[in-house]
Specification:
Strand 5 and strand 6 form a beta hairpin. The termini are far apart. The protein contains no helices and 11 strands. By secondary structure, it is mainly β. Strands 2, 4, 5, 6, 9, 10 and 11 form a 7-stranded mixed beta sheet that branches.
Length: 127
């Protein structure tokens, strides 16, 4: 398993921006398809965005398309989620996750497809 640590969460007003980071301790993430997920109390964890290990392919859930961007850092051990034009409904704990395998173009899109998870970072968007 990969040890993942998220950071960058916080409180912001609607319309604002945050950038979440997910770092792996002691290893590169360049061979892992990665994803961001989020969860609010009483609801199931849901998919937000994913990126192939090559970085060639990305995917987003419909509600964040055009506002969020997932990317890989040049240091190879970090992925990011740039969140713009935030809305109150984006309020959640955000988790990054890694999948152990996948083709060059594979983008993970489900909770069940992931093998390692971080502890999460809280994002609160006020109206």
């Amino acid at each position: 398993q990969v040890q993942l640590v998220e950071s960058g969460g916080g409180s912001v007003q609607a319309g604002g921006s945050l950038r979440l980071s997910c770092a792996a301790s002691g290893r590169t993430l360049s061979n892992y398809p990665m994803g961001w997920f989020r969860q609010t109390p009483g609801k199931e964890r849901e998919y937000v965005a994913g990126i192939s290990w090559s970085g060639d392919n990305t995917d987003y859930t419909e509600s964040v398309k055009g506002r969020f961007t997932i990317s890989r850092g040049s240091a190879k051990n970090t992925i990011y989620l740039q969140m713009n034009r935030l809305k109150p409904e984006d309020t959640a704990v955000y988790y990054c996750a890694a999948r152990n395998s996948g083709s060059r173009y594979y983008v993970p899109r489900s909770v069940d497809s992931m093998d390692s998870w971080g502890e999460g970072t809280l994002v609160t968007v006020s109206s």
